[in-house]
Amino acid sequence: MSETIPGPDGQPRCGWCAQTDDFFPYHDNEWGYPVDDDTRLFEKICLEGFQSGLSWRTILAKRENFRKAFKGFDFRKVATFTEKDVERLLQDAGIIRHRGKIEAAINNARCALEMVEQEGSLAAYFWSREPDPGEVKRPQSMSTSPTSVAISKDLKKRGWKFVGPTTVFAFMQAMGLVNDHAEGCVIRAKVDAARKAFKRPRR
Length: 203
Fold this sequence. Notes:
Helix content: 40-55%
Shape: globular
Structural class: mainly alpha
Strand content: under 5%
Oligomer: single chain
Low-confidence stretches: none
């Protein structure tokens, strides 16, 4: 895949947008911009877990269904889900019906509650682990990084599931902890500007 492709306006975008036109709005308006909202952070780490072994195209197409099924990814609500909810979700054709991933999302909601107690917020936890920009030597040349390995290890120690280093790195890319837009991508500079203006959350 080429590093960039022409977007709808003729300007270059990251080459992965070639997979489907549906990627352009997500790429232009969401991917890589820094996020400090705990609900969005929880949603993304859950959806990355559901993506494991699948394509983001599949997950993005079902994202609204996931939001409805998981109460808008309000982890305080998801943490109260029971086995009855698991069975309900396994019958929901609008999402990925994988018992292990569904149970992991519920488990991770409970872990998120503990993290908020310990760290102040999910945002404070993840942004306190923001890597040095030099860690990613060349955009889109890595699928894991030393930081994603370290976060994955720590999350697993805290009881989180489906949070391997590749999943965590994809989360970091999407939530703006790294700017992994291709060098020639027209959005890269916008994300750089957003990251510079972003106020890192603290406990």
